[in-house]
Structures are given as structure tokens and as C-alpha cells.
Amino acid sequence: MSSHAPNHARVIPLRPAPAPKEALWRDVVGDVLRRERTAQERTLKDVAEDARISVPYLSEIERGRKEASSEVLAAAARSLGLGLADVLSLAQRDLARHSRTAPARAPMGEVRLAA
Fold first, then answer.
1. Which 8-state DSSP code applies to residue 40?
2. pLDDT digits (tens, 9 = 90+) for 59-110
3. Between 33 and 14, where is the model more confident?
4. CATH homologous superfamily of 25-98
5. N or C: which end of the chain has fewer CB within 10 A?
């Protein structure tokens, strides 16, 4: 190999960055319920008993582990002094805010190089 051979860089494509995790409706609704309950300084037990929901089930709803029916959401909302529409409106606002602040995805086919 001669000392005058051109230097060739080998380009290794990077994997596309993983898409940001999109918020799930059950997570957002659970966050709204928890935020409203804690703002009222109420316990899970208090709200669950008032709504006639088991404490473990309400806890799982708040943590986004369970997808609650509209009847259960309405009962939890009433227990918090809200209507179902109030909870859904707050959740929709949070979901919209989350989607606006999520980093934009890289367009397909874009090349990214690492130094």
C-alpha cells in the first residue's frame, strides 16, 4: 500500500432514534384523577369509598395500569366534585400538551452521522 493512497472513511449508518413514547389515554386520565385527588388532600380510600370503587382498583386506574369504564370514571369524577366531561377535558388538555412538547420524529430516510 502506497503512502499516497487516498483516505477513505467508512460510513456506518446509525439506527433511527426510537420514536418518543406516546402518552396513553389511561395514563393521562389516571394522572388527572390523582392530581385532583391530591389537590383536595383526599386519600385513595376516601375517594374509592365515596365512588364505590375498590381502593386497589382506583390505585391501578390512577397509575394507568387499568383502563376504566366510563361508569367508573364518572363515579370517581363525582367523588372528586367533577363531572365526567371535566375529567375528560382536563385529560385532553394534558394529552395535547404532551404531544406538543414531544420531540419531533426524524423523517424516514434521514441520514445521521456520529463523530
1. T
2. 999 999 999 999 999 999 999 999 999 999 999 999 888 777 655 554 445 5
3. 33
4. lambda repressor-like DNA-binding domains (1.10.260.40)
5. C
